[in-house]
Description:
Blueprint lengths: L12 H7 L1 H4 L29 E6 L4 H8 L1 H6 L5 E6 L3 H9 L6 E3 L1 H9 L4 E7 L10 E6 L14 E4 L4 H12 L8 E4 L2 H10 L4 E5 L2 H8 L2 E6 L8 E6 H6 L1 H20 L1 H12 L3 H9 L11 H16 L16 H5 L7 H4 L13
Helix pairs in contact: 3-11, 3-12, 5-6, 9-13, 11-12, 12-13
Amino acid sequence: MRIRVSRRHVATSAAAAALCFAFSILATGGCRRGAETNGVASASTPTAPGMPRVFRFGYQKGSDSNLLKARGTLEKRLSPLGVRVEWSNFAAGPQLLEAVGSGDVDLGSTGESPVIFAQAAGTDLVYVANTPPSGGASGAGQAIIVPQNSPIRTVRDLRGKKVAFQRASSAHNFVVQIVERGGLKYGDIVPIYLAPPDARPAFESGAIDAWAVWDPFLAAAQKNTSARVLVNSKGIYTSGGFYLAPRRFAREHPRVLRTALEELDKTSAWAYNNRDEAAKLISRDTGIDLETLRLLASRRTRTAIRPMNEEAVRAQQTVADNFCRVGLLPERVNVRAALLEPEEHVAIVPTKGAVQDTVRVPSKAGSPSH
């Protein structure tokens, strides 16, 4: 397998990380596959006012969105309103947000990092809702793994080593922080930008020294390879996950987004209390082996839908500023530039008090400064 080495000290690396956001993911194996439908609204069913005829939902394997697809409850809510749901699977957040930016996906979720790089690339999207970090306080749902017989025993041992991860993903944020915690600088490692489906064979063949990855890919590697966890993400600063939509779609179709978030919240609660059944459902939908999904389910948290309040915005801005500090963004990203107005946001997020909790967008939010 050919591996392209990207070092941070290359003069154009920061600009490439953001301004070439879309192009960087085309070489990965994580592009969108054909859209799927669980059910089709009858052609004779008129579409309700304010609703789109088709609602396009992007998801990643093993996520609450994946489970919502497998359960089919969103279709039951939307079909009587004349709305058909289309589902598209993506390997990681950056690929999903490329589709959001091009208008091919109406709603999807990612970790904290992809949206920051998407903003830096000028993608016109908005934060719809926030969720707690997946994997909980234990950090077990994301880790850097090495082969069982690797001489790498500490983070400091990663100096000069090839560390693979998806560019602009939550793993990117994890790596930036963990190498500094271990006494290194980001430039001391050799970043290898690979989507999880491409990183797995590189890891197994020995083409890379370490792999930073999240569930379900982490759980699969732990179950099916000789992987050893070097360090997990416990204590890593993160703002959690986010649901995102094209700005225009969010303003024109708040009702369908609210319905989707309501069903996602119910699905998360159900999965937390029915872990084995949730694992079986996702296994049938994705083909991922049941034991891997049971491991994933054992560290599943209750990912309740939360509004984009001041706490969420400040946390996300901290992550964005850290990427800028280490030279991975060409300029500071203003998180607030991708917020809806409070009145628009409260029409979407099914949380009491969301108007009071939601951050008001400043009039010059579209002009971030370094």
